[in-house]
């Protein structure tokens, strides 16, 4: 299935979609550092990435005539206009690229589209603008109509070791079987709590003594409920930081696994405990805004995640390298879509389109 992507960044969305079976005809990104990161991994022959046609370009200057009849148009328009940590200017922000995402759909007329953004886009402040985006995506051009659904998701529910709340907008052309699209969580907090504090298998897996009373106060009621019910939750558990970093060890100066000094705790910025999915990685002007992007170790000290650790939290493979500075690379990682989430949404779209194709007989 052929796809084209806008706002590729360092490649998290593209890699998840590649794993789901999409073949990218073009990946567009205007930021030079992000393009260099993708090109570095392309040259290194990283699986999927080695075949990516990444192009440095500003989407405002693009014409989409060469990409008509794509299976999928995807992208993560810049989130800063809608981020809780931003200036909250929304569509008054010059970085608002949603009109160009709509234009790409209008001109390529794909069977489906997928756009991802911060959960701040769904805040009451921007409710009117989100509604207008959805309306424009429903009918991006005369005679072209899509069934559009808006999904508020947590990447942890799809296997990412990170509590990253996002808005995912999926559209299926009106001649597709949109009603069959299912985006269902595969992982849960309840299963994690069961494995940790009811059954205890989590600690055995990590060769640690059980910490059966170590759960946070906010989880105490949920743990009591699980214990009292005796009903084992179905599905997989949330993937914790400890799970994600298994076997990596302390920073050794190699493979982007380099110690970065300066981490500290202060009100509102306390780092990510090892036995939960991490807090959402952030992207600030200086790489790590507000003292976050750090782990809380077993001895209660904190340190910044290395690039290698942050890449694991985003679902990137260990041979996916970041050749730029730590601050620039952490910015790219903070802006990335977790590969586990993009693969899950990609799989849901592929299943829906494939199911439709089986129902529609081939023309003679």
UniProtKB/TrEMBL annotation:
Q: Any idea which residues are catalytic in this one? A: 79
Write down the EC number.
2.1.1.37
What keywords were assigned to this record? Methyltransferase, Restriction system, S-adenosyl-L-methionine, Transferase
InterPro entries in UniProt? C5-Methyltransferase, C5_MeTfrase, SAM-dependent_MTases_sf
| Biological process according to GO | DNA restriction-modification system; methylation; negative regulation of gene expression via chromosomal CpG island methylation
Q: Which domain of life is it from?
A: Bacteria
UniProt entry tagged with the keyword Transferase:
yes
User: Kind of enzyme, top EC level?
Assistant: transferase
Gene Ontology molecular function: DNA (cytosine-5-)-methyltransferase activity; DNA binding
Q: Which PANTHER family match?
A: CYTOSINE-SPECIFIC METHYLTRANSFERASE, DNA (CYTOSINE-5)-METHYLTRANSFERASE 1
Family as reported in the entry's similarity comment: Belongs to the class I-like SAM-binding methyltransferase superfamily. C5-methyltransferase family.
Which protein, by its recorded name, is this?
DNA (cytosine-5-)-methyltransferase
Taxonomic lineage from the root: Bacteria, Pseudomonadati, Pseudomonadota, Alphaproteobacteria, Sphingomonadales
């Amino acid at each position: 299935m052929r796809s084209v992507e806008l706002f590729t960044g360092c490649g998290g969305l593209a890699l998840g979609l590649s794993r789901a079976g999409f073949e990218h005809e073009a990946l567009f990104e205007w930021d030079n550092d992000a393009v260099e990161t993708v090109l570095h991994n392309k040259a290194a022959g990283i699986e999927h990435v080695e075949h990516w046609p990444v192009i440095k370009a500003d989407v405002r200057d693009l014409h989409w005539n060469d990409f008509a009849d794509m299976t999928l148009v995807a992208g993560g328009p810049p989130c800063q206009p809608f981020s809780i940590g931003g200036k909250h200017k929304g569509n008054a922000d010059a970085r608002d690229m949603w009109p160009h995402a709509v234009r790409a759909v209008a001109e390529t007329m794909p069977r489906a589209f997928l756009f991802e953004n911060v959960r701040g886009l769904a805040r009451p402040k921007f409710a009117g603008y989100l509604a207008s985006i959805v309306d424009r995506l429903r009918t991006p051009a005369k005679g072209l109509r899509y069934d559009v659904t808006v999904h508020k998701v947590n990447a942890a529910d799809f296997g990412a070791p990170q509590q990253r709340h996002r808005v995912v907008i999926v559209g299926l052309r009106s001649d597709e079987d949109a009603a069959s699209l299912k985006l269902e969580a595969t992982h849960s907090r309840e299963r994690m709590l069961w494995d940790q504090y009811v059954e205890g298998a989590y600690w055995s897996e990590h060769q640690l003594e059980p910490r059966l009373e170590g759960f946070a106060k906010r989880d105490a009621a949920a743990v009591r409920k699980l214990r009292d019910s005796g009903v084992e939750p179905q599905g997989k558990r949330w993937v914790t930081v400890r799970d994600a970093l298994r076997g990596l060890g302390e920073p050794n100066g190699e493979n982007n696994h380099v110690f970065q000094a300066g981490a500290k705790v202060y009100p509102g910025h306390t780092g990510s405990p090892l036995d939960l999915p991490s807090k959402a990685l952030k992207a600030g002007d200086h790489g790590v805004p507000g003292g976050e992007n750090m782990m809380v170790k077993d001895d209660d000290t904190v340190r910044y995640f290395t690039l290698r650790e942050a890449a694991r939290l985003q679902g990137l493979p260990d041979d996916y390298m970041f050749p730029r500075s730590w601050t620039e690379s952490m910015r790219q990682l903070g802006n990335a879509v977790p590969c586990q989430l993009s693969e899950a949404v990609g799989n849901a779209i592929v299943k829906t389109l494939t199911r439709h194709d089986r129902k529609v007989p081939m023309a003679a």
